Give the backbone structure.
Amino acid sequence: MRKLLFFMMGLFLVACSPRKSSGNRTTHNELSLLIGTYTDGDSKGIYTFRFDQETGKATPLDSVAVSNPSYLAPSADGRFVYAVSEQNDGGAALNAFAFDHATGRLTLLNRRPTCGGDPCYVATNGKEVLTANYSGGSMSVFPIEKDGSLGDIDTLFEGSVGGPDAARQATPHVHCATFSPDGGYIFATDFSADSILRFVVHPNSYTPHRSLAATPVAAATGPRHLTFSPNGRFAYLIGELSGNVTAFSYHDGVLQPIQTIAADTLRARGSADIHLSPDGRYLYVSNRLQGDGIAIFEVNPATGMLAKAGYQPTGIHPRHFNITPNGKYLLAACRDGQVVQVFRRDMDTGMLTDTHQDIRLDKPVCVQFVDQP
């Protein structure tokens, strides 16, 4: 009986112990890390790493040459990656890649023109891929084929003007396009009209989406990025021009504003990215041009309201950032600092600490994680 007990305890310990790396095999703590860059300098395109979300260490894997992949999005299962080529000419495109977790290798499947200049944002629901085209002032919709490649452009929606900033809002700009957490709607930020566009998602991706009434925001907001809470009850918008976060309650396609709070107190007119921690307890916003850094807010889980919690200085021009699925690290892509900074996150207070485990790249501008299958 005693031998049987020891044998069973041994099996339990083996089963519950963290898996170790062996060659290309990975532990359950390791993620694939993909970094998009601007390629008008020394960078060649997208770089892949193995990232240990327990230690914050990144190990280089591979890279692929592609022009200005300034934003990219993996599929939910991690098998495919969709990345823009942010160009303001005939080279403006969306690229579809097959992704190999073990090697970090990206293999180009195909490329489609976005029919709108400077695509700068990507989102996918597994059936379609959206791009927000900044200079084109439009949103493109592409169906996904069975092999993960892109079909021909399905729909092109255009933004408008109306904001008071004669320099920054003179022509249409769409900066973000994303699916609602309930899957029924698409929201796109109409930068120059100070509004959020709303579209109904049709089950048949080849049926054009129907445009609904836009949600207005305060004049001269310059709506940039929009994110939803993990429970789907709230949404948060960062205004690039105003430096303010607008908080909304959300239900069945309706965004109802509940609060506006400053993220950029210097009013540098360069606020950029916005994300919630995986548990929804803290909201983070990056600011550029002056006082480069990340504003931190505590979220009231019952009301969705925000309270200022702190501010973390970063490298120069933190255009994009992301938080690991376990919530332990925040990685900030600082374009002009030539670095992706790795910050440890205190999950109780929301505060950030620089680990100095920097990832050095020329003009990094997008950070995405892919869980290992």
Notes: The domain at 43-371 is CATH 2.130.10.10 (Methylamine Dehydrogenase; Chain H).
